[in-house]
Amino acid sequence: MLRVITIFLLSVVVRLAADEKSQQLEFRIRARVQDVVPLPSFPGSFTPIDPDPHYVVTLQIESAPTSLTNFAAGSAVRLAIHSPLLFFRAPDAKGKTYDFLLRREANDRRSGALHWEIRQ
After folding, report:
1. Closest to 29 (Cα-Cα) out of 82, 94, 75
2. Which of 1, 31, 41, 46 has its Cβ near the most Cβ atoms within 10 Å?
3. What is the per-residue DSSP string for 7-42?
């Protein structure tokens, strides 16, 4: 009897997990790199996008979808990254303009963090 109940409960859990609708949201942003400074010497606030940040990048948003209210054209965004060379794939990114792809996994219950990457 215990085995039957266990199997029933497992099937219910699996079915509920499968019913949770998940979607990946994508946003395209164009921004110019204003500054890249080592994290210890940066006095302001920033958003970490790397688990082991060492630098803060200040981006000037040039264009973004209106649905991203925190990324309006003309606003500045500060991101903490591990390495400018790894992130931008260029030795000196300051002053250059990049197209970014932001991804967010969203489902019925929560919305995940934004994942930043440079579009090729």
Report:
1. 75
2. 31
3. HHHHHHHHHHHHHS-EEEEEEEEEEEEEEEEEGGG-
